[in-house]
Amino acid sequence: MDSQILKQLEGYDTVINDIEVLKRYGYDYRLDRGLAKKYVERLHPNIIDVKVIDVIDETKATKTLRLASKQKYLPPFQAGQYISVIVEVNGIRTSRPYSISSSPDEIAYYDITVRRVEGGIVSHYLLDSISIGDSLQVSAPAGNFYHNPIIHSNKLVLIAGGSGVTPFKSMIQHAINTGTEKEIWLIYGSKNADELIFNEFFSKAASKYALFHCIPVLEEGTSTYKGFITTKIIKEIVGDSSDKTFFACGPQAMYQHLLKELQPLKLKPKQLRMEMYGVPADVFAQPGWPKEITRSTTFTITVRGKKNIIVNAGEPLLQTLEKNGIVVPSLCRSGECSLCRVKLVSGKVYQPEGVKLRQADRRFGYIHSCAAFPISDCEIIL
Fold this sequence. Notes:
Rossmann fold, 19 strands, single chain, Elongation Factor Tu (Ef-tu), domain 3
């Protein structure tokens, strides 16, 4: 704005005078810019260099890796959040999210609990090739899967399937360590008792902490509840659900099953938090997948300004890009965080149920590459 016009405004002279006084006698806050940046980077680093300080066997197929920062400091986190582990396997740079299974008050390290996944590149690498003393890179803690005392009640129903129990280990340990008055029911679905992760910890916790109840639901073997987690089982265990907050974590198959079983409880949106682990293992069996597209179908993906890629149907777009040396930032890899989004210029993709695409992304043609499966030739912009 023209200075002559500004001079006509009431109080202009006073403001100019105050500025001159501050220049002469006031504190120059520009001196703190470097200090502020230092604190921000300490709390929210992009990448953390860590060292494996312990490896703990949990089950035949599961181990816990204990990670300490090489910088002697780890950012704080909420019980239930995850970190993304960045690795390079067979020349392919990729990442996978792992829930932190240690408690937030254990500030010297992060525990991540890794279960062997059939065909899982990263889980096999971490379990077979990583040992005490090895180095890894991880992201800062992320995710919204945690208890918020402003919104959620202090009566928590935690429903886990398989390795989906890992964020609940953190929540339960934190509740015990801090002495909070939360009543917690852990309903833990597993194939059999041998595959129950943290079984000894949960048994001891239930005997010491009167407000914690651990109830396994096994497909095989002897247990009070057998088969899959159903509406009937949930009602028998927790009774009235109107005053409780539900957290559920597990694979895609459990997510789809549980949505149906929770419907009769008529939970309000704020009463239910769900965290998916990955995308469907077999997308061809998912509702809405085009029947004419089979495992032998191939498509061409054009990455504008880079290259053309031939892709097999049934593979997530992000995985295809990584295999071809194209690095796309990612965190959750389950269609929630949107960090891996790319712009779909042309073509069609299939996105499984539960992918949380923002309205603005949908409007302007952005997709979550981690949970987008090409069903035609496509062109994308990174």
